[in-house]
Amino acid sequence: MKKTLILFLTIIVLINAQEKVKVKLEVISPPLNDTSKVFVAGSGETFGNWKPDAVMLSYNGSKTWSRTFEILKGTRLEYKFTKGSWATEALGRDSSVPQNSILIANRDTTVSTTIFNWRDKFNFKVKGQITGKVFYNKHFTFPGLKPRDIFVWLPPNYETEKEKRFPVFYMHDGQNLVDPRTSNTFIDWQVDETADSLMRAREIEPFILVGINNTDDRGMEYRNSPLGLLYMKLIVEKIKPFIDQEYRTLTDAKNTAVGGSSMGGLISLMCAWTYPDIFSKAACFSPAFTFRDFDYTKTVQEDNSNKNSLTIYIDNGGVGLEAQLQPGVDKMIEVLREKNFVENKNLFVFIDKNAEHNEAAWAKRVWRPLKIFFGVK
């Protein structure tokens, strides 16, 4: 009798676990031109895994778009609306880029959203500015990759100390690092302000920052894929030689660091792990070490070469996507410990459980690897 009851309760739990609810997303938008469409982009396959043009809503007339989804009960989803690209995502009432909308599908429901403006039509003044001198170098190409621009930010004493050479910090997603006007959320990492302040306070050694812009192929270029291998070669074989030739750099691996966030955090570790003779330091913010269909921890685990000369900084939050990335972060930390990486020596870990997955959050923490990599001894 007891076994029968347990089996019955188990069946009930399994049935409830697979129960689906209907969620209708309804969007009220300003008038669009005849060719424009409205899409939802968000977490999970239901919302297209953040691909901005994968899941289209249906036009119902009267400026209204909608679509109904069947979702497993209890599923937590994050999402935004676009017109097919991140350059045309929906903005908030004040024309700022809003945080992700969050939906927990506990029952049949309709979620109605009014869009006041689109990114390609925004008309507000972006706050913030670039601190220091920035030089732009355009159209770096490599066979098999889309061309991209880079910028070079110089430390405050670069022009006054003519004989001095400087370490270099290469960072991915260059659009988001120092200029709020080009950042995908109109909020930048403020690496320029943070570095400038720490240098003037003599807490870190002056360094040169190189921001490498992403392209539409970011998702494949920032992972362990054929495009990812080509992207690393672009940095090692074209961008770094250019920087070393045009600017007064310290060219050795000891004085060369790489960093980024999310997929950029993954490719940062990949750069250092693949080219330890080029990069000795990697800053991995909110890194996607394991995500959906890939797991870079296995690559690191199966590599028997000694990489203990590297200094690795791993940083993650705890809200939304950050929580989904944490298991991969934990696994990578475990693998690195097995390879004799020692915390606070050549492995540095910082977790902020209240932090979200965005530029504003990374801006608050970017000082940490700067002090670790370039701190005044």
Descriptive report:
It is a single chain. By secondary structure, the protein is an alpha/beta fold. The chain folds into two domains: 103 residues, Immunoglobulins (Immunoglobulin-like), CATH 2.60.40.10; 242 residues, Alpha/Beta hydrolase fold, catalytic domain (Rossmann fold), CATH 3.40.50. Helix content is 27%, strand content 27%. The strands form five sheets. Strands 11-12-14-13-15-16-19-20 form an eight-stranded mixed sheet, with helices on both faces. Strands 4-5-1-9 form a four-stranded mixed sheet, with no helix packed on it. A four-stranded antiparallel sheet has the order 3-2-6-8, with no helix packed on it. Strand 19, helix 7 and strand 20 form a beta-alpha-beta unit. Helix 6 runs parallel beside helix 7.
Describe the secondary structure blueprint for this structure:
Blueprint: H1 2-17, E1 20-28, E2 39-42, E3 55-56, E4 58-61, E5 64-72, E6 75-82, E7 90-91, E8 101-105, E9 109-114, E10 117-118, E11 133-140, E12 148-154, E13 168-171, H2 191-200, E14 208-212, H3 218-221, H4 226-246, E15 256-261, H5 263-274, E16 281-285, E17 290-291, E18 294-295, H6 296-302, E19 311-316, H7 321-338, E20 347-351, H8 359-365, H9 367-374
Parallel strand pairs: 1-9, 13-14, 13-15, 15-16, 16-19, 19-20
Antiparallel strand pairs: 1-5, 2-3, 2-6, 4-5, 6-8, 7-10, 11-12, 12-14, 17-18
Helix pairs in contact: 6-7
